[in-house]
TrEMBL record:
InterPro entries: Ribosomal_uS15, Ribosomal_uS15_bac-type, uS15_NS1_RNA-bd_sf. This is Ribosomal protein S15. It comes from Venturia inaequalis (Apple scab fungus). Keywords: Coiled coil, Ribonucleoprotein, Ribosomal protein. One of its GO terms (biological process) is translation. Residues 150-177 form a coiled coil. SUPFAM superfamilies: S15/NS1 RNA-binding domain (SSF47060). GO terms for molecular function: structural constituent of ribosome. GO terms for cellular component: cytoplasm; ribonucleoprotein complex; ribosome.
Amino acid sequence: MPPRIPKVHCLRALNVLPARHNATPMTLPNRLFSSSTPSQAPEPVKKGGKLFRDPYIVSQARARKAANISRQDALAKEREQALGNAVRGETTSFVESFDLGRDPEDTTALNHFLRHDEINAQLKYSKSLLRPIIAKPSNLATKATQEDYARQVEVKNAEYERNHENVQAALERIVNLDNGSSKDRLRSNIQRCIQHFGRHETDQVLPPKPKATPQMSAQAMRDQQTAREGVSDRADRGIINRVGPDVGSSEVQIGILTAKIRSLANHLDSRGRKDKVGKRDLRLLVHRRQKLLQYLKRKERGGPRWQRCIETLGLTEGTWQGEISL
């Protein structure tokens, strides 16, 4: 009679058999691998309803994040300092003189477009007109009459000199620029910018701007050089004869705008904190100066005229580069 071999059951079925069924000697062992899908895999241990994370790793990550943020803030401050203040730039002696409306060395600057020689000539003329004329008495035979006449002349002359000194002192106070208003100082600053940056003055001092890279052929360059052989050195340097002072070049307008911007910025910092119209005007002036600076840099190709303008006015890259937001 053949031996009786028990039927091999499914492994999954063996796991669900009731405990009363005794395992036979032929029961196969459970498999080591899992047949469940990844979605059915057991979840990690939770603590307090959240995934458990090592506190040391969390503290290290937070420290790295804080160090990164602080480094970004430091780099942003360095970039901002490198660009400079978009409104004021750097303070120079010429820019500081805008507050006075004159050079610091010139303590006798006059207002109303007057000159010292004109004031002295007018004072001399008025003094000659107001000189007192004392009529001589008809009888100077007696000594008492002569002494009385001399005393009258002395008193009149002393009063005349005293009145003239008072007039001269009053006139000096009237025409003194330090006693003028902000409009008077702005008018004086405009005249100083015209004299300092005007091309009727700088053409005699500054060299020409760098020449652009030639885009013409060699033959065209030779023809152009031949045509220039009879041109004078002054015209070859790009200098033209001007009729009057230069009031419209870019550097002159930049200097005038810088004077206006400094005056308005001082007003807003001191007593105009709630002046919304002044803040808007300041923003418009700064943006207008930015456009002129970009044009001047492109036109002069970073030449001596451009360098002199930004060095004298203390303008930094923040005044013409990027977006200016006040």
